[in-house]
Amino acid sequence: MNKTISKVFIAADHRGVGLKLYLIEMLSAAGYNVVNLGTDDLNTPVDFPDVAKNLADAMLDTDDDVRGILVCGTGAGVQIAANRYRHIRASRCDRPDQARDDRFHDDINVLALGADDIDIEMAFLCAQAFLESPFDNSEKRRRRIEKIS
Length: 149
Hints:
Layout: E1 7-12, H1 17-29, E2 34-36, H2 48-60, E3 66-72, H3 76-82, E4 90-92, H4 96-106, E5 110-114, H5 120-132, H6 139-148
Parallel strand pairs: 1-2, 1-3, 3-5, 4-5
Helix pairs in contact: 1-5, 2-3, 4-5
């Protein structure tokens, strides 16, 4: 577990509720302080741009070292919506090595997952890799991040 992360914000639209609830259970059991930003209702449609905004707002309102996880049906919608916010660098990942590389090279701070496209165990492995992986923080990487932030 990455001890420097103070909170993991997690949010989903209605299609991602089941995966989100599983991840909350598993990450909490692993010792992470997980903050559920909703939705928890499978039956009432929620627009993914609203879910991404809620998470982006929560991440903006803190000085702590936080990360976010967003879940929708494909993962693409929440990734696109989240990346509208300057302080967010979201990546849709399907494999742990991808999540690890995206953290290391691009300092992603939000993991986007597609509930329709990934099994729950693989999603948990991606979340673990995302949360445990460091950013390279070399001058080259910082320079690139500054150009998009």
